[in-house]
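Case 243 in the screening queue. Each case pairs one protein sequence with one candidate compound; here the compound is zinc ion. For every case the pipeline is the same: read the inputs, emit a complex structure as C-alpha cells, and attach any notable structural observations.

Predict complex for case 243.
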Amino acid sequence: MLKVCVVVDVENFISFKQGNPSWNSWQKLKGRINNLIKDFRYDKNGFEKIYKLAEKEKFPISFMLVGSLFQPEKSQKFIDFGYHTLSHKPLTLISDAELKEEVKNIYNAKSFSAPMWMIEDSENPSRIFEALKKQKYKITVYRGANNGISNRHENRISKPITKYGIQCVYTSNWFDGERKQKIREILREIMQSSERDAVYCITTHDFSNKNMKNFKFLVKKLKEMQKKGMINIVNMKQLARDR
Ligand SMILES: [Zn+2]
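Case 243 output:
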C-alpha cells in the first residue's frame, strides 16, 4: 500500500534573513520583499497550530526542528520530532567543523531534513551522510544532488533508497498553506499512484501555513483515504522502522 508521509520543516523566519545561496538576482529581490512583508504574509505561530491539529486528529507527522529555535514537546508516538539542523546553514557549502555543529543530534532524533535539501554535493557525495550516520540519524528527506549552488533536485514517488547508510525518502510534492489548488493536486497524485510500497512524501513549512484551512483539508482527506484502505499515513521515524 502507498505510504503517505507529511514532513514540516519548523524554522520560523530564520531563512528569511539568510536567503538561499542558489538564488539569482531576481529571486534575491523577491526574497528581500518577502522578508519585508513576512509578518503579514506568514505566521510566526505556524508550528503550534500544526502541532495542535496533529494532536487533535492523531495524525502521524514529522516535525523537523531548527535546534536553535525549537525543542521537541512531550508527545505520543504518531508525532515524530526530527532535526532540521542547529541554525539552518547550507550543509554542502560549510566547513567540516561547522557541519559537525549543525547536525549534532541534541534531541536524539532519528529523522532529518537538510536546509534547502542541500545534503549531497557531487564533489564529495558521502560527506553529509557520513556525518549524519555518526550522529545516529536513520532517515532523511531527499531531492537529489547539488553541484555547488546549482542542483538537480526533483520530486519522486518511489520506495526509499539508501545512501551511505542513511535511508532517503524522496519528496513527492510540497505545499504552502495559501494554495488549495496545490492540495488538490497532491490528493490527485496520491489517488493515481499505483507503485506498491512507494512513499508519497509531502513537505511544507511551519511559517507558510497562515491559513490553516488547507492543512486541515489535507488531513481530513488523507484520513478518509486511510479509512478506505487506500493509503497508510506514517511519519519518518515509522518509515525508518518499517524497513
Ligand atoms: Zn528549512
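Case 243 observations:
- Residues 9, 11, 15, 84, 88, 115 surround zinc ion (CB under 6 Å).
- The mean pLDDT is 93.
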